[in-house]
Design brief:
By secondary structure, the protein is an alpha+beta fold. The chain folds into two domains: 5-91; 100-159, no CATH class. It is 25% helix and 23% strand. It is built from three helices and nine strands. Strands 7-6-8-9 form a four-stranded antiparallel sheet, with no helix packed on it. It has a three-stranded antiparallel sheet with strand order 1-5-4, covered by helices on one side. The longest helix is centred in the middle third of the chain and has 18 residues, at 74-91. It is globular. The chain starts with 12 loop residues before the first strand and ends in a 12-residue tail after the last strand.
Amino acid sequence: MYLPFDQLAGHSRIWIYQAERKFSTSEIRVIEETLRRFCEGWNTHGNLMPTSFEILDNQVIVLGVDESNLGASGCSIDSSVRILRELENQLQVNLTDQGKVSFKNAGGQVSVFPSLGIKARVLSGEIQPDTLVLNPLVNVKKDLEKVWISANESWLNKYFPN
């Protein structure tokens, strides 16, 4: 059962999918149509769940489900990953690979790098303590306000000199 994202409860579980590039206007339309159709029928064991999605910075997809009445089953989560993989193939973009880190510069531009090599980027000064990084620990809607945190507040803090 699809709901507008702002109507999805704050305790709703979310999954965040990062693309390595911005989506075009036509790609956003495709994503919105595909995910709205998916959310309308997303269910667990035949029972519809309140679900929604949002696209952040034209590059990050947030998929959410209110599990207060029914928890998302393994099969229902698998179906959401399948729809994201279909979007990957259709749009020729990587969404489901978890081995990447997203950063946002002062101008709001998002850059995505492979996790391998991040330490070198920090040590070279390319990533500063105040550089915004996508917080992979955000897993409920109410915490989306903390989806972008400074690198020194993230797991990258271990690479910055004390």
